C-alpha cells in the first residue's frame, strides 16, 4: 500500500522568470498550507506580483513549476471553485454594475447566480451592487475584487496587496476577513510591502527581495530570529510585531543578493 501524502494548496518549485534579460523571480520555491494566512512580504519590485501571476498561469515561467492543488492552473477543472484571486483592483469592465460583473463571472464557471448575492453581502456591497463598477472608489473596487475571488467558495485565496490605498476601516475589514478565511481551513496567500500589516495579519511569512526567497517561516520565528535577542526578550509579546521591520532590515542587510528597490 502506498501512503498518501497531502498535496500543498500552492506549490512553487524553482520558479524563475526574466524580463528583457533581468531575472525578477529567481528560483523561488515554497509551499502554502491551508488554515493560516501566509504573508508574501517584500519591497516594491521584489517580484511578488510576478510570482502570483506565475502561480495562476497568467505568465509562463522560464523554468520551474507552479502548482495549485498539485496541478498547473491551466489543468484545474472549475478553477474558480479551487482558487480565487485578486491581483489588481479595478480589473473589471468599467461600464458594468458590480452585480453584472459577478454574474458574468459566475456564468462563465457555471456557478449559481445566488452565490453573487452571497458574496456581495459578504463584502458589504449589497447596497451599491447596481451601480457602475467604473465609478467605484478604490476601497469599493478592492471589495468587488475580493467578492470575485470568493465567488467559487475556493479553498485557496490569493490577494495581491489588498490593503493598498484603503482607509483604516477597510484595512481592518480585510485583515479580519483573511483571518476568518484561514480559520475556515482555507489557504490564504497575501502579498504586501507593508511590514506592520503583515506583522499583525500573517501567521507565516515568505519574504522576498530582488526575486529571491529570503525567508520561509512563522512570523513569530522570523521576528525572533532576526532581532537582537536582548531587545526581543525585553519586548512584551504583544508588542513584538513592531519588531518585524527591524527583523526585515537585518535580514536584507545580510543578504548579499538583496538590492533595495
Ligand atoms: N511585464 C513586465 N515587463 C517587464 N518588467 C516587468 C513586468 N512585470 C514586472 N516587471 C518588473 O519585474 C520586477 C518585479 O515586479 P513585480 O512582480 O510587480 O514586483 P512586486 O509585486 O513585488 O512589486 C519589477 O522590477 C518590475 O518592473
Ligand atoms: Mg506587486
What does this entry look like structurally?
Helices cover 34% and strands 23% of the residues. By secondary structure, the chain is an alpha/beta fold. The chain has 2 domains: 149 residues, 3-Layer(aba) Sandwich (Rossmann fold); 71 residues. The chain has a 6-stranded mixed beta sheet, sandwiched between helices. A 3-stranded antiparallel beta sheet has the order 2-1-4. The radius of gyration is 19 Å and the shape is globular. The structure holds adenosine-5'-diphosphate and magnesium ion (MG). The site of magnesium ion (MG) has 4 residues, from helix 1.
List keywords for this structure.
261 residues, alpha/beta, Rossmann fold, 2 domains, three-stranded antiparallel sheet, 9 helices, 34% helix, binds magnesium ion
Topology:
Blueprint: E1 10-19, E2 22-32, E3 36-41, H1 48-55, E4 63-68, E5 83-86, H2 98-108, H3 114-122, H4 138-150, E6 156-160, H5 168-183, E7 187-192, H6 195-201, E8 204-209, E9 212-218, H7 219-225, H8 229-234, H9 244-254
This protein binds adenosine-5'-diphosphate and magnesium ion.
Query: According to CATH, what is the class of the largest domain?
Result: Alpha Beta
Morphology call: globular
SS elements, strand count: 9
Determine the strand fraction and express it as a percent band: 15-25%
Give a brief description:
This protein is α/β, with parallel strands linked by helices and 261 residues long. The protein has 9 helices and 9 strands. 34% of the residues lie in helices and 23% in strands.
Amino acid at each position: 500500500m502506498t501512503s498518501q501524502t497531502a498535496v500543498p494548496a500552492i506549490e512553487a518549485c524553482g520558479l524563475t522568470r526574466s524580463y528583457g534579460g533581468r531575472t525578477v523571480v529567481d528560483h523561488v520555491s515554497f509551499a502554502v498550507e491551508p488554515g493560516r494566512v501566509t504573508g508574501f512580504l517584500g519591497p516594491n519590485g521584489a517580484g511578488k506580483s510576478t510570482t502570483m501571476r506565475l502561480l495562476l498561469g497568467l505568465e509562463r515561467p522560464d523554468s520551474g513549476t507552479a502548482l495549485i492543488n498539485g496541478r498547473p492552473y491551466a489543468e484545474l477543472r472549475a478553477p474558480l471553485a479551487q482558487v480565487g484571486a485578486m491581483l489588481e483592483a479595478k480589473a473589471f469592465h468599467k461600464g458594468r454594475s458590480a452585480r453584472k460583473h459577478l454574474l458574468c463571472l459566475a456564468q462563465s464557471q457555471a456557478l449559481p447566480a445566488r452565490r453573487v448575492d452571497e458574496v456581495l453581502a459578504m463584502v458589504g456591497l449589497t447596497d451599491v451592487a447596481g451601480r457602475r463598477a467604473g465609478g467605484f472608489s478604490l476601497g469599493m473596487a478592492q471589495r468587488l475584487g475580493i467578492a470575485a475571488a470568493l465567488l467559487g467558495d475556493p479553498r485557496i485565496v490569493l490577494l495581491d496587496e489588498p490593503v493598498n490605498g484603503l482607509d483604516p476601516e477597510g484595512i481592518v475589514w480585510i485583515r479580519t476577513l483573511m483571518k476568518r478565511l484561514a480559520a475556515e481551513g482555507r489557504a490564504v496567500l497575501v502579498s504586501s510591502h507593508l511590514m506592520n500589516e503583515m506583522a499583525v495579519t500573517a501567521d507565516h511569512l515568505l519574504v522576498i527581495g530582488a526575486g529571491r526567497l529570503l525567508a520561509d517561516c512563522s512570523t513569530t520565528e522570523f521576528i525572533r530570529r532576526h532581532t537582537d535577542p536582548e531587545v526581543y526578550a525585553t519586548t512584551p509579546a504583544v508588542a513584538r510585531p513592531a519588531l518585524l521591520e527591524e527583523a526585515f532590515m537585518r535580514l536584507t542587510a545580510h543578504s548579499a543578493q538583496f538590492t533595495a528597490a
